[in-house]
Recover the amino acids of this structure.
């Protein structure tokens, strides 16, 4: 339960972090530490250098920007949960952040860390996928914007390059959005999570813990676009999914849960 030996660098800016990442191929960013520190202790992760961006307070914000909201990558879950701009214009993000882990996790963990970690069971990535969010990354070659739909590439893998820092998340303003999560205990990760949002006049649905990455429920979206009701659309929830079997539930149980929770989410919408 003690991490392997490593060096520690406290970044003073995003550019400083990018430079520090470039000095060693095995350097890794540290944000809130609530996914990385456990992995270090179990020695699943063994970086040679930790580049700590956790004190870059200028990456902690929620701002209104026309018809969208921009969120600094270092914004903590608890800050999202209490943010008045989000509560008014994209409440699904605030209310989902309030469901992440327990108060300790929410006061240290960040939205950027949650997204960059690429855990298919995490809550906010599914919501960002449903919202068609944009993720802004900065690296040695400058800044680029990555669509959430192409960001999650595999279990714990993302489109971020090794020397890129996720700096901002952009979401549209939406009036109607809901995230429903089934977990064995209140503070657990989702056995299955369902995000459903209405953007313009289109309903989009995404799933957590139903495959190697957060997934869009294409079958459900197609059924809704074709005029089906909540129950008929929800029956297609497991189309194109690869739910895992683990201690929290079998693949068949997850497929069943997805149908139940998608129906409930659509009815709530
Ligand atoms: P860190 O742990 O610091 O980093 C995670 C990974 O992201 C690392 O690989 C790091 O290099 C990378 N990274 C971090 N920031 C950036 C950045 N800006 N740019 C590029 N890469 C970056 N999550 C849920 O969704 N739902 C839950 O119910 C839940 N329950 C939890 C319960 C417990 C007990 C714990 C310990 C964690 C739980 N989590 C849960 C995970 C939690 O949300 C983490 O905070 C989050 O996944 C990671 O955020 P972090 O800021 O702590 O990132």
């Amino acid at each position: 339960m003690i991490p392997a030996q490593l060096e520690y660098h406290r970044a003073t800016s995003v550019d400083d972090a990018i430079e520090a990442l470039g000095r060693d191929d095995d350097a890794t960013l540290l944000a809130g530490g609530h996914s990385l520190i456990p992995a270090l202790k179990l020695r699943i992760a063994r970086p040679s250098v930790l580049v700590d961006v956790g004190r870059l307070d200028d990456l902690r914000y929620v701002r209104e920007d026309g018809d969208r909201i921009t969120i600094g990558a270092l914004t903590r879950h608890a800050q999202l949960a209490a943010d008045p701009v989000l509560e008014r214009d994209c409440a699904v993000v605030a209310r989902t952040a309030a469901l992440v882990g327990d108060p300790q996790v929410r006061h240290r963990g960040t939205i950027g860390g949650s997204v960059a970690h690429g855990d298919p069971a995490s809550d906010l990535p599914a919501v960002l996928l449903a919202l068609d969010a944009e993720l802004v990354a900065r690296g040695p070659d400058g800044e680029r914007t990555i669509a959430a739909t192409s960001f999650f590439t595999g279990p714990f893998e993302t489109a971020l390059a090794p020397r890129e820092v996720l700096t901002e998340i952009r979401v549209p303003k939406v009036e109607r959005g809901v995230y429903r999560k089934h977990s064995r205990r209140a503070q657990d990760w989702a056995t299955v999570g369902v995000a459903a949002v209405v953007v313009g006049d289109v309903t989009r649905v995404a799933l957590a813990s139903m495959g190697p990455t957060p997934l869009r429920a294409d079958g459900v979206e197609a059924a809704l676009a074709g005029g089906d009701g909540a129950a008929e659309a929800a029956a297609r929830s497991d189309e194109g999914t690869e739910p895992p079997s683990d201690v929290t539930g079998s693949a068949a149980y997850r497929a069943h849960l997805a149908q139940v929770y998608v129906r409930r989410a659509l009815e709530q919408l």
